[in-house]
Design a protein that fits this description.
The chain is elongated. By secondary structure, it is an all-alpha fold. Helix 5 packs antiparallel against helix 8 and helix 6 packs antiparallel against helix 7. It is 82% helix and 0% strand.
Length: 223
Amino acid sequence: MQLTEMLSLIVKGFWETLYMTLGSTLVAYAIGLPLGLLLILTDPQGLRPMPVFNRVLGVIINLLRSVPFIILLVWVMPVTRAIMGTTIGSKATLSPLTIAAAPFIARMVESSAREVDRGVIEAALSMGASPSQVLLKVILPEAKPSLITGAAIAVTTILGYSAMAGIVGGGGLGAIAINYGYYRSNSQVMLIMVILLVLIVQIFQEAGSRIAHKSDRRVREQN
């Protein structure tokens, strides 16, 4: 393969990787964020205790989290075909990526919300705030730095998942590494793809850390 063709392939793979990662992250957060807040809300010590519902929801989330992504890719192919009309390419990868990421995000949101000082929540309740107001105006703002850090971790995790999707016909840099590197025994292509993926991970992680630091109220108060 000529250099220009390879560069064109890499550029295409780069944008496909971003599309798969960011697209599935947005959809996964639209599902996982409410689920995480619901876990907090219905916890036995939560604002609206519903122990049975909380336990059932927790089990479902844990079951989905327990399935290895490579197995999930194959398992949800009928669902992917029904939703996307295909099981090949970056578009088809959005479905399994979202299904894999949503429960992971739900647990991260739950963990971030649990870090909020209980005293702040009790103070809001004593002033007459409703559970929904406490959730949206106290817990979410207070947990914002942790949520942003968690989002950066989620993006990098989903990026790793997207690379694995290349094994079953997904697009992106992972598919290039497998199809043009591994299958053709081209270690240079493999190395280039690994370097690009590492750089993307570092960029997302650094950006998330900086945004989380700036949004931390305690840091702003010190300044």
